[in-house]
Amino acid sequence: MSPDIEQKNSILAALFDQSADLVVQTNIRSEIIYASPAARRYGYDPLEVVGTSGLQLLHPKDRANAAKNSVDVLAGVVSHAAKREHRLLRRGGGYAWVEGNPVVQRDADGRITGFVNVFRDITERRKAEANALRQTALLEKVFESSPTAKLIMTLKGDIVTGNPAFLSFINLSAQELVGKPALDFIDRDYANWDPGETRLLRAGALDAVRRDFRFLKGDGAHAIGDAIVSIVRGAGGRPWRLVAQIVDVTELRRLQADIAARDAQFRLVAENTRDIIVYSDMGGRITYVSPSIRDLGFEPAELFGKSFVRHIHPDDRVAGKKALDNLASTGAGAQFRWRARHAQTGAWVWVESSLVPILNPVTGQRDGILDVVRNIDAQVAQEIALNGALSESERLSSVKTEFLSNMNHELRTPITTILGISELLMKRVPEFGSESDYLSRIQRAGSELLYIAENVAYLSGHNGFTRKKRIRKY
User: Fold this and answer.
1) Whole-number average pLDDT of the chain
2) Which of 47, 239, 280, 349 has its CA 20 to 30 A from that of 391?
């Protein structure tokens, strides 16, 4: 043997000895005539397998396929599609997955004398593939059974598949969707449509975008979908597919639009009324206050998240706490007056609160308080002035009554005396004509004065007097 050949054989032997791959040389009857040291990885000494059939080291279910591969190679049929993955029996039990790469050996006349097969341990790869298959099966199950509409697209936006939830959402069959551009089923005039953002997503510059899209359904109707469109990256991190998850928010967006419209109306009223509108939680912390709070010298923003208690007059805090406690325990609204300190002047301003509970629309529980606060400082001032005027009127009325009572007494006493004396005189001098006429006039004049005095007392409301009839004039 030439030195070159010997050197080459030495190099190959060294490579075989150090290789983790198992190198096996067999004759045409599949009998092993050489095994590399890597046989020890499977529990075998290389020399002990020499002379044995290589097929006996394979899993029983893999032997037929391995034998067929050998027959095909001997017949000159080399198929790249041939299954060359087999299970190799480990000493002590168990199997390792190996992948063979056979090379035909020929003699000087070109006849096949055997094979050299390099087996690579692919056990971990097979485990990873099995796990990947299980994961794929799980993901497919999730995809098919998910209540959320899901759509898979090419980077161009052509539909690859959609799950049943998406087919139901769009009201179309898979045959009507697959292979067609997803944009065919989207209203591009919708306000949220942004073609530039979509281009960035397809190029991989964005990982995901989230937008509302208006979809054109199979029955001609429209549906609003809250869509998260994500990029799926393939080998080397290059963009490969687009995946969309879509939630039907048609009714939600309608309700939100209605709420926004009502909220705008409420704010229009709240921000243009002189009454102060205050929302607070059950702890009394302010969550909203209308701009009219500026009438008390405050800016709305400085009160958010705070309690107003320290700005209430100390004498009014007990009544306010009682009203709030009653509202929290019974849900009963309340109305009470109190004084608020003006933030700029420090003056106390009279206001009136109308408290009502705010109910959670879902639970029905009380979770807030609405307080409509009205400035009644001018009204209270008028009430104080009126009360003062009423007190003065009552005092003057009392003085009047006392005066009339005294006056009546002062008048009645001399009149009664005159009437009594004149009556006695008339009994004594009935015969005198002129004197009798004078006495009669005195009697009538006295009775008229007494009538006036008693009716004045009656009109003044003096107790003990009734209205008298006027006597005839004298």
Assistant:
1) 84
2) 349
The CA distance from 143 to 167, in Å, is: 12
Q: Where are the chain's structural domains?
A: 3-123, 146-254, 273-375, 390-459
Reported CATH class of domain 146-254: alpha beta
Of 78-82, 187-191, 390-394, 405-409, the range with the highest mean pLDDT is: 390-394
Q: With contact defined as beta carbons under 8 Å apart, do 295 and 274 qualify?
A: yes
Single-letter amino acid, residue 7: Q
**Level-2 CATH architecture, domain 3-123:** 2-Layer Sandwich (3.30)
- Whether 309 contacts 284, CB under 8 Å: yes
The yes or no reply on domain 273-375 and CATH 3.30.450.20 is yes
Task: Of 21, 27, 28, 32, give the one whose Cα is nearest residue 58.
Answer: 32
pLDDT for position 268 = 81
CA atoms within 13 A on the CB side of 58: 19
User: Of 85, 87, 74, whose CA–CA distance to 30 is shortest?
Assistant: 74
- Measured CA angle at 56 (ends 52, 61), to 5 deg: 165
User: Does the pTM exceed 0.85?
Assistant: no
Q: Among residues 43, 165, 40, 30, which one has the least CA distance to residue 100?
A: 30
Asked if 3-123 and 146-254 have one fold, the answer is yes
The pLDDT tens digits of the residues spanning 200-238 come to 888 889 999 999 999 999 998 999 999 999 999 988 889
Please state, as a whole number, how many other Cβ atoms lie within 10 Å of the Cβ of residue 39.
23
pLDDT band at 425 (very low <50, low <70, confident <90, very high): confident
CATH tag, 390-459: 1.10.287
